[in-house]
Amino acid sequence: MYRRVTNQWSKFVRQYLNAKFKHFKSNEKPISFKSLISNPRRNKQLGLAVGGSVVFYCANLDAAPVTGRTRFLWLPRSVELLVGGYSYQSKLQETDKYLLSPIHPVTLRVSNLFMKVVEAARADPQVDHSLLDDIDWKIHVVNDPLAPPNAFVMPGGKVFVFSSILGICKNDDGLAAVLAHELAHQLARHSAEQISKSIIYLGLEGVLYAVTGMRIFNNMLVNMILKLPASREMETEADHIGLMIMSRACFNPDEAVRLWERMSDFEKQYKSGSVRLEFLSTHPHSTRRIKDISKNLLKAHELYSQSNCAIINGHYSKFQNFFNANSRF
């Protein structure tokens, strides 16, 4: 998902900070709290650094679309697109031999569904429409029999859908739920948010290491207390935004709940019943996602009704029947 884009950036930042903190060697003693507060020059530098960081943080607070969640977001859109383009080329090389033709019935089906979702997002007054303008959309279906179910949208409009997820989606409404969720990550600029926060995470890890001398434990602490909860929060937000978009696009919002019920069954079947602890995961547990989505169904059905979906779906069913009849997946 959006983490695929941030991995490259985080790796670069981590290498940079490691170079900056290279004087903190494993055989050196950690900096004591007493030494930190007893040095006037260091106190002044620390005060300026903290004060500047607070000002920078507050100046770059941003409200997420639809949910209104306040988050730290400083990364320019141009950099986000640059990192997304690099990740796209990397993923394209990785999946090239498994890609279905752009005119394959399955690719056409996914493309039509996705563009319908995009148009619904464009009609949402809470969405930043500039994120949808001048985008070179490219939809790829990856027919790799060994790949796990997956789908994601990269910054810049590059979409990957793995054929293994189509069976779990079961129908167009289920697939629309997946596509709307992935588009929601980009509309909320979760990739940029994750990259923005990575500076804080890596900086905090460096400070903790300077004080305690324990790198692995500190990294685990930051991961469990900050990184993973933030990731789960963004996933929940994408579920919310995606639910509203798919409803506005005249897809049955109830199918979003059924999708995660099927996903939960899949996880139980192919993970041999292993228990996944939510606080150690980047994603909320499927049962929690079902509960959270269910809470928003009333609003989703209101949007569905306001969009004259009965008339629209009557016309769309002709195309749906054609693609279903010509698809072998």
Automatic annotation (TrEMBL):
The note on cofactor binding and number reads: Binds 1 zinc ion per subunit.
Q: Which PANTHER family match?
A: METALLOENDOPEPTIDASE OMA1, METALLOENDOPEPTIDASE OMA1, MITOCHONDRIAL
Q: Which cofactor does it need?
A: Zn(2+)
Q: Name one Pfam family in it.
A: Peptidase_M48
Peptidase M48 domain residues are: 136-295
Family indicated by similarity: Belongs to the peptidase M48 family.
A single BP term in Gene Ontology: mitochondrial respiratory chain complex assembly
Q: One Gene Ontology cellular component annotation?
A: mitochondrial inner membrane
Alphabetized InterPro entries for the sequence:
Mito/Outer_Membr_Metalloprot (IPR051156), Peptidase_M48 (IPR001915)
Q: What protein name does the entry list?
A: Peptidase M48 domain-containing protein
Swiss-Prot/TrEMBL keywords: Hydrolase, Metal-binding, Metalloprotease, Protease, Zinc
One Gene Ontology MF term: metalloendopeptidase activity
